[in-house]
Amino acid sequence: TNFRHYLMPFPNFYAIGQDMAHYHRAGVAGMFCQGNYNSPGGELAELRAWVLAKLLWNPYQDVDLLISDFLGGYYGPAASLIRDYLDLIVGKVVDENIHMDLFCDPDVGYLTDQVRLEAAFLLDQADRAVADEQIRSRVDRIRLGLEYVDLWYRVRAAAPDANLESDLRAYGQRLRRHGIERVTEWQTLEGSLASITARLHTE
Q: Is the C or the N end of the chain the one with fewer CB within 10 Å?
């Protein structure tokens, strides 16, 4: 989990698997796994909880198989496209040996314009692949992470953005519909939106 940016895509699933196996071999008898603990809806929270729970029972399981098992059951007809989405982002991190930490910003290197464009295309396809509204809502929750990154860049852009404030309000409404109460560890959603809006009016 990225505690500064709860919704930012954070592809550390394979690192989790490697670490937990390493700790077990070193004689560690128990682990406390902390994720997004003070709000529902962290980035891929359901998948992350599944993988962590399975590895706590047996840290030598194949993370790829765990992910595939979960995606098939949770995203149904969209599972292969969500897998492509994950592989796209994980591939960027692995291929370029990009290091993430618990507080890195979206400009850390793997969420480039091109990656976000390709990821959005895959999520568009995933949305079209399903008719079930519950599954479509799950796909939309993934999309919130990409849109969070887009908005992060727009807030920091030098050029004026006439639609940014209204887009932030609309984004906040979607977060509330998904039950998401925080986008960072240290502020409520309302506090974060108010801080960003105030920043826009002072720059």
A: C
